[in-house]
Predict the 3D structure of the following.
Amino acid sequence: MRVVILAEKPSQAKAYAEAFTIQEKTKTYILLKPDETFPNGATITWGVGHLVELKEPHDYKSEWKRWKLDQLPIVPDQFLEKVSKGKWEQFQAVKRLFQQADILVNAADVDREGSNIFYSILSLTGVKGKPVRRLWINSLEKDEVRKGFKHLQDNDKDLRLFDEAKARQISDWMVGINASRLFTLLLQKKGFSSHLTIGRVQSPTVYLIYQRHKEIENFISEPFYQIEGLFHSESGAYKGLAKIKEKDKAKVQALMEEYGLKEKEDLTGVVQRVDRKTNYQKSPKLHSLSTLQSIANRRWKYTPSQVLKTMQKLYEKRLVSYPRTDCNYITESEFSYLVNNLESYQKTLKVSFTPVSLKPNKRYVDSRKVQEHYAIIPTKSIPTEKRLSSLSREESNIYKEVLATTLAMFHGDYVYEETAIFTHVHDLPFKSTGRREVKRGWKELFPKPPKSKQEKEALLPQVQKGENVGARLYIKESMTQPPKPYTEGQLINMMKTCGKLMDDEEDVEILKEVEGLGTEATRSSIIETIKTQKYIEVKKNNVYVTAKGVMLCEAIEGTLLSSPSMTAKWESYLKKIGSGEGSKQMFIKQTNQFIEKLIQETPGSIQQVHVRDTGEKKKWNAPIAKCPACSKGFIMDRYKFYACSDYKEGCKVSFPKKLAGKTLTNHMIKALCEKKRTRVLKGFKGKKTFSTALILDEEYKIKFDFAKKA
């Protein structure tokens, strides 16, 4: 029986292969020697992420290449796929291996996109009727890989997840293509010189940032007044506040007069009561991807995307479990191996403590709450000192954070004492609160943050009931503060918990169930997308909406595209498709109805939008240079490529926006059209990065010219 295994990417295939004995390695596959798991050996091949993708509108009809209102809605009769650009050779290798196989194994990532990648490739190869098995593991550690291949699952659940992923992919395509063209073209009629890209998840995300922007912009700071007491006891000074907070200073002055008190006078206070309470704080829950992204952003200012990439590298190095998890729990099986490796983990983190308990605690270990993936924890692979020192700074920081959070569940509670002192001055009570650390407990495992001013002030002196203290009172003026902009880490939490911002009770419940906007795996890429689209910008880790972002939000205001409730209902129904209770066809039909409604209603609502200068340097569709072929038309920026404006008269000249991983700018295209060559350019990507000049050949195709020296 010839077994062919498809991994999602080469690094994943390499990790699988290293759990067995390799017979042969080639550019497109790895051959495994026969063993007890694979008596006849096996072949591992791979995608390069998405080997296939949905076709573009112009792949169906050439007239759909041009953006025109009267062509909307763009909905093909049947959604088809094509091999992604630059991935033809690998696709052909996978197709050949699939044709030769007796059994196929889907070993792509264990989520709905992994199912989508495998079945989309399988569909385009045309291979049918072969048995398919599913590898479902949470770690690339060798024992886990071998165990996973010995206990392959059937593909019933996998096929349902594929239907779920395909429904999402097609519907996102329909919304993106139609809404982007609809809003862009209507705004261009009003003088807008750029383009908008609109997406089911990215647009409501921008809108939530815009809402915070409006709150800050419309906030009017107002003064408020309190009475603050500065007290001097034999054991030290402390501050306290009276229970009054007023916008009207006269009311505060009247209260002081009522008690016969004057500001800035030397007075005597009496300690009426001292309350002390000991608090026990449990260690944090184990990390999901979003909690790790939030902490890393707060501690090191890492972007969510940076955290996911770093986690992926650590996963592929077999140091941590599956990164794209939304779960904070593990099962007793994982807990068992953590207990066995406890001493080694402590040595790795250079800490030493006696575990408080080696029994599983429901706060961290609960198999009922683990579905596809468990929480992020270290694997059984204990890195050597040398291996640890070879990690990048980001990898080291994040690995140690995962390790410390995991070890924390075996450590003691953090213990602190909260104190409240009630000091009366002429019978007017003042309250002072403070806290004192009693035992660091699990906090010993983490770097100690520098003490803030508030923490220093929170240390209260030891005073006794009935003690007289020196007192001086002040009327304290403060200003109300506007809400702060989101940080990138808070943006992840905001997307996850946006249900709290909804008014509709049903929407709140759905958003809670589906965990907000996007999924654990996609949130960081959504943030990167809206940064790339120039809807938001990040300054000193704070997120601000741009003029283009404001315009997008004004355009979609009042539609479902601005509301998290739409994506909530989508995700809720998608989950039903994944569990076999919903239908892919029904979902796509409803998306179609939504687009029809949008096309009818948007022309009226768009009239209210104020067209702004978005700061983009040039009209995206302005002429760049005279067409080198027909000399009548002009080469124009067509958003995803460059092309001649006289295409209706038959001029087919077009140039790509990207070549060998490098973006071709208007300036480069102008040089090619006018001089037939560019200077030597850096930053092209092949097996290594390289530099070359570009030339335009006789058929108006762009070629590399390595002969030209810098």
